[in-house]
Design a protein that fits this description.
This protein has 281 residues and is of the alpha/beta class. Helices cover 40% and strands 17% of the residues. The protein has a five-stranded parallel beta sheet, with helices on both faces. The protein has a five-stranded mixed beta sheet with strand order 6-7-10-8-9. Helix 2 (46-55) links the parallel strand 2 (40-43) and strand 3 (61-64). It binds S-adenosylmethionine. S-adenosylmethionine binds at residues 21-22, 91, 93-95, 98-100, 123-125, 169-171, 194-199, 222-224.
Length: 281
């Protein structure tokens, strides 16, 4: 066991400083003060962080801390703390460690007995979640799904039974493929696609996965997908609901057998049952 009283000791500290995800005004006064007062700032990409620091006239020394040097760099940062030098870790945007480097460093520093102190600020997951219109808790943050379709579908299959809202990060050039996999594996759930948060072209697209898919051919910018969890309520499925569902898929261009498969998944009943009822109706 280990117990950290963040503000009682006199040792050097590792600060995890959240930085803006777009709008620079979201760097808090506390974050600016910490970034000015530490001995060193460890940054995911020093070129990006230089721009942020110069905007706020922060002149602290920068070192690189990214996924390809994190073990060696963590070792060096623990040595700095041993010398009594405090360090702030920043990523390109939002919180370090959240789909960004930092977790290995946090473990190394806390194992070495130094305090690790978070400095709050912007985070794309939470900004999207609270404005999504989808139940904000319980929720699960997943981050990025795999780029490979087979692996992505495997990951989604594991997530399919979870009755919690799930938040994903995605790149614009992969969003259509990812939503297609979600539609196939999770069924046509309600989602919110949140783009360009805190920026001029911020946008929230709320609707069924199939509806959002129709308009995301060439979406631009950074994006978060908030997906409703699997419904926990036992659903009463009527014959007319089954026929309507299958007809809807057929009218969208699917073959009868593919439509039956999708309807069965959406309504959470067996394919054979849908087949039997559809052809009886
Ligand atoms: N550490 C960051 C955080 O705390 O949110 C996340 C970094 S992750 C490498 C980058 C991903 O976060 C993007 O691909 C996108 O999915 C999401 N993201 C970051 N900034 C965003 C923004 N302004 N609007 C929407 N999504 C954003």
């Amino acid at each position: 066991m280990q117990r950290q009283k963040s503000f009682e000791g006199t040792s050097a500290v590792l600060y995890l400083v959240a930085t803006p995800i777009g709008n620079l005004e979201e760097l808090t006064p506390r974050a600016i003060e910490i970034l000015k007062s530490v001995d060193v700032i460890a940054a995911e990409d020093t070129r990006n962080t230089v721009r942020l620091l110069s905007h706020f006239d922060i002149k602290t020394k920068l070192i690189a801390h990214h996924e390809f040097n994190e073990q060696q760099s963590s070792h060096g940062i623990v040595e700095l703390l041993e010398q009594g030098k405090s360090v702030a870790l920043v990523s390109d945007a939002g919180y370090p460690c959240i789909s960004d480097p930092g977790a290995y460093l946090v473990k190394s520093v806390s194992d070495a007995g130094y305090p690790v102190v978070p400095i709050s600020g912007a985070n794309a997951c939470l900004a999207a979640l609270v404005a999504s219109g989808i139940t904000p808790q319980p929720y699960m943050f997943y981050g990025f799904l795999d780029a490979k379709e087979s692996k992505r579908k495997e990951q989604l299959t594991t997530l399919e039974p979870i009755p919690y809202t799930i938040v994903f990060y995605e790149a614009p050039h992969r969003i259509a493929k990812t939503l297609t996999s979600m539609l196939e594996v999770l069924g046509d759930r309600n989602i919110c696609l949140a783009r360009e948060l805190t920026k001029l072209h911020e946008e929230f697209i709320r609707g069924k996965i199939s509806e959002v898919l129709e308009i995301v051919d060439t979406p631009k910018g950074e994006m978060v997908v908030v997906v409703e969890g699997k419904s926990e309520k036992p659903q009463v499925v009527t014959m007319s609901m089954i026929s309507a569902k299958v007809d809807e898929y057929i009218s969208n261009g699917m073959s009868a057998s593919a439509a039956i498969k999708c309807a069965a998944k959406d309504l959470n009943i067996s394919k054979n049952e849908v087949y039997r009822i559809y052809h009886q109706a």
